[in-house]
User: Fold this.
Amino acid sequence: MLPTDIRAKYLSYLRFELNLSANTCQAYLFDLDKLLSYMEVEGIGLEALDYTRLQHFVSSLYDLGISPSSISRIISGTKSFGRYLLLEGYTDTDPTVLLEVPRKGRYLPTVLSTEEIDRIMEACASKGGIEGVRNRAIVEVLFSCGLRVSELCHLRLADVFLDEGYLHVLGKGSKHRLVPLSPSAVHEIKTYLSHPDRPIPKRGQEDYIFLSRLGKAISRITVFVFIKEAAEAAGIDKEISPHTFRHSFATALLEGGANLQAIQLLLGHEDVATTEIYTHIDRSKLREQIERFHPRNQRRPEDSNPK
Assistant:
């Protein structure tokens, strides 16, 4: 039988020993619940969990029609749980040590042009009222600063230095970074904060910048929903999310000539390899670079013919 408190103890391990964020902890627990449900249905205790049974578990995920990327994430969570079992003495060996996470092909993220972002901001403004002003400011900050949606939702007044033009961001793993604010972002934030119809914050919510209509810190779901609606209203036929603006931020910097390490710091990536996904370049732009700078394109063919 499974210990009744194994889930709670694992959560404490994630929070206090690995120092993971609340969102990451919830993701790990979501993955763990898949494994625990499987073990309960199959009548498997911790002492009987081995590589063969874990293979059967992974096969059951495919049978359920779960996407390969989700299965990879679940396997990663299972491996974390396996290390925890060994560390806490529930098992003599880590049953997940031979379990492999399938390699995922690298993809090119969807990005938006500046013109498309302007159209989305216009669609936000057309909503009218304080929500239109707020949503326009949120889109500008996401694009100008490359924030994760969770970082944006948790922005506090003390994190924003409008006169100096930068944000203090608390990112993944409780890591701090400073991100410059564009003049456009400063303007949009000031417009929102000074708006007479900005909701009165609920008790305990006074420090948050972006508020819901109820006066609470805006939720990630609210941001997802209004961005989808604004993109549709703007006639943009792309699958986008708040993270699309982060991709667009990084891509715009890289195409403008920014250093990859600088982009890494601005995004808060621990490993520059994560940032390298943004080194994709449109083929037409690649051809343009060759035509502009390769020596064979600097002179006409007749110039090289002997007289």
